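YM 10:42: Antibiotic biosynthesis monooxygenase sequence, as discussed on the call
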Amino acid sequence: MSDHPDAPVEAFEPPYYVAVFTTVRTGEQGGYPETAARMEELVKQVPGYLGMDHAQTPGGLGITVGYFRDAEALAQWRSNAEHRGAQQRGRAQWYESYTLHVAKVERSTGFTRP
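YM 10:58: structure's back
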């Protein structure tokens, strides 16, 4: 993972998995920042978790990409009870809409200016 807070997660040796979570939030965000921080804390405990990138547009589109070494790590995160509770609250309160795309990465490259 990068030492720079605004740098992307490094390119890993494939294969690995990504979960791309794209959201549009509602106006009701009570409890969201605390829950998001807790989810970040929890996912870091999953063996095989590699990192996360997140971006938010001024118009409200959010994109979070989670990187996982293998399908088992991703499945462990998906089935975490606290994470499942946050998903339910997200559908009930925080998200106007979302999509989740899961993919196996077959090629990965990166660049960092010296």
